[in-house]
Amino acid sequence: MLLVIFSAHRSVEWKRFAISGAAQGTTYSIIYYAEDSTVTKSLIDSELMSLDSSLSLYKPYSRINQFNNSIKGITLDKHLLQVVKKSIDTYKATNGLFDITVQPLVHAWGFGVTKSRYVPDAVAIKNILPCVSTKLLQLKGNRLSKSKPCVKIDLNGIAQGYSVDILAALLEKYGVKNYIVELGGEIRVKGRKQPSGEKMKIGIESPNEDAFENHLLQKIIELDKGAITTSGSYRKYYESKGQKITHLINPKTGYPQKNELISVTVYAKDAITADAYDNALMLMGLKQALAFVERRKDLAAYFVYKNANGSIADTASSAFLKLMNP
Amino acid sequence: MKRRNFIRQSGLLTAGFLLHQQMLQAYGSADAAKTISIGIIGCGDRGNGLGSVLNSMPEQFQLKAVCDVLAFRLDQAKKLDKKNNLRYEKDYRKILDDKTIDAVIIATPLHNHYEIAAAAINAGKHVYLEKTMTYDAEQSLALVKLTQQYPKQILQVGHQYRYTPLYFKVKEMIDKGYLGKVTQIDCRWDRNWNWRRPVPQGYTDKQVNWRMYKEYSGGLPAELLSHQVDFINWAFNTHPDEILGTGGIDYYKDGRETFDNVQAILRYNKEGMIGNFGATCGNEKDGYLFKLKGTKGTIQLLMNDGVFFPEKQTKKELETVDGVTGATKIEWNKEGGIPILKEKSKDGSWYALKEFYKSVTENSKPVSNVITGATTAFCVHLMNQSIYKHSIETWKPEYNLDK
To answer: Cβ contact (<8 Å) for A20 and B320?
Structure first.
């Protein structure tokens, strides 16, 4: 009898471990609750390195650059294969709004590996568009082929989400069950803070157009599973002749998309899904994006947008409302 | 702690970047209908430095003439003569008499500030007057009185930090209460050398190293600490009520008269603050140091760089979330601080001269004007009185000027 009581009280010695660093042109932060520091920073960093050598446009030797520089295509490694598969699925699901072959356009608009503020002319865009379409990609087994040599891919709209999932999988592999992984503002959560048992609190950054308003933190949601990512037009942009040129380029038109949306925050079961859809939702505009999310059982989204009168407003899909008010 | 910590009030921190952009845009959009033709009186390091900033702003300014009583200084100013069309004068009156010159920069030794500025105002010129505005309080009061008779002419004082996005942002942060109640301010401007310039053959030490002589210079308080004193006056919209200073010629016993080591305590009654302002020529570890210490956090400033360090309790309040999703996040540096601006500012003089252009073309009052310049000159005057006389000086009613 006594023994049973003892064993019931023999609680786990919870410790909180925090790892952070720089990767993929941004920063990452991992917090996990466990008895021991089974996952170390060097383990995380070497995983991130391997992701980079597969998915990063910034590494000349990366597998993605090998594909882009190839005439006909290459054999993919496991990371690139996963991400390309998901990209093709998302391309279909978004009716072509999410399209990884957007790379030549991203480059032309100055948001690629080499940054510029030079606005391309209509002829340049017209010449690029025939190279842009996921239909020009063929995936057979683990070989990715292209119909034209000028077809190049850019995974920046999805690779961070995927990387977050890979880091989460790494934690799981080492038996960690309570964690939050964040890379460049893309987040994946599982379990709860220990020993308190509280859910993880996630802040959704609000784009603050008025520099002196304090309410940067628009909303806080509490999660014990899933992933959340945000896409916004409010930071990555430059101005040219009084026009805001945002990094969100519509692959169908070849031009940066202008609509009322300022940011979209997407919740999904994994970060690759959330990340894949956030940019496409930005391009859809509020009405269409909201309808799109409502149709999808696996997505929830929160939108910040500009009203016709210029004021900032927010709204959310019904599933996201439930997350905010459980 | 890491940047996963989220700041509820951090609007201001990312806002800094926006502010900078907005300021640049605001300046950039200024209609370049008119360039101001300008002359520089006093071509030492500061005058020449401002000259090269002017040369970088051809849409706003056209440098027409330079003036210095020392021939070798005029010689050094030749590097400003990009188009080979500069006038060189030894007598500043010749520049003031030139009707084609709209404005002058005065960057002479301190004891000349009043005389030349007054003459320039009387001659119908707009004036950019280097700090400290005048040698003593009496001259400041006289200059205030004089400029009131010429409301269409601009007099801007060269406390250029008022115009930098960084210092502007810091003022915002103070106004919005992000620091909580500020009780202490620490300022230093130290160096480990004799603060002398080499004297070319044929010139006297007094001509070149005028900063070493009481009759020409207000010493370290006027030449260096006045910037920080001015910033506090501006940021808190205040002035000190009581000043206690000390100092000496403690290391460079080389015939100088002004002190190579000074410290002044400025008591601000209304704000309940103490400002510690010190400078030495005998140690350079701190160099330029500027810390504002409040109940919620500390701001630590360099000339073009600033960091906010929240106090423990503030930090705790900021750590209410475990993660933040967003396109960008707050970035904490290794020491647990948050950079105030994401990009480094340009040199303060650039912003100050942009403002000067705007004030002249729009006939608007510059932020650093004759009144604020006088207020800071009073502070420096009292600091030197206290330092030299080993007295406690108090603010005088006549120093309270209508703004």
So the answer is: no
Of A48, A30, A52, A49, which is closest to residue A39 (Cα–Cα)? Answer: A30
Closest CA to B20 of B12, B31, B30: B12
Alpha-carbon distance A45 to A59, whole Å? 16
DSSP-derived pairing of the beta strands B126-129 and B103-106:
parallel
A→B interface, C-beta within 8 Å = 18, 20, 27, 29, 31, 180, 182, 185-187, 189, 193, 200-205, 207-208, 211-217, 220, 228-232, 234-236, 239, 263, 265
- B150 and B182 part of one domain: no
Give percent of chain A with pLDDT exceeding 90.
65
The model's pTM? 0.67
**CA separation, residue A313 to residues A261, A262, A308, B8, B397 (Å):** 10, 10, 10, 19, 52
The three-class DSSP label of residue B48 is helix
Using a CB-CB cut-off of 8 Å, the residues of chain A touching B22 are: 211
Q: Which of A216, A243, A266, A302 to probe by mutation at the B interface, max B CB count within 10 Å?
A: A216
Q: Do the chains contact at B324 and A214, CB–CB below 8 Å? A: no
Q: What is the ipTM of this complex?
A: 0.78
The contacts of residue A242 (CB under 8 Å, 6+ apart) are: none
**Interface touch B324/A265, C-beta < 8 Å:** no
- Of the CATH numbers 3.40.30.10, 3.40.50.300, 3.90.1210.10, 3.10.520.10, which one belongs to the domain with range A199-326? 3.10.520.10
pLDDT in tens, A79-89: 999 999 999 99
Task: Give the closest residue to B64 by CA, choosing from B93, B91, B41, B30.
Answer: B41
DSSP A169-203: HHHHHTT--SEEEEETTEEEEES--TTT-PPEEEE
For chain B, what is the domain count?
2
pLDDT at position A203, please?
A: 83
Q: What tens digit of pLDDT does each residue of A203-229 get? A: 887 655 433 233 344 578 899 999 999
Q: Is the pLDDT of residue A8 over 80?
A: no
Tokens 């009520």, located at residue = B241
Q: Is CATH 1.10.580.10 correct for A71-146?
A: no
**What are the chain A neighbours of B171 within 8 Å (beta carbons)?**
none
Nearest CB partner across the interface for A235, out of B10, B321, B327: B327
Contact present, B77 and B185 (Cβ < 8 Å):
no
Sheet holding A137-140, edge to edge: A73-75, A143-146, A137-140
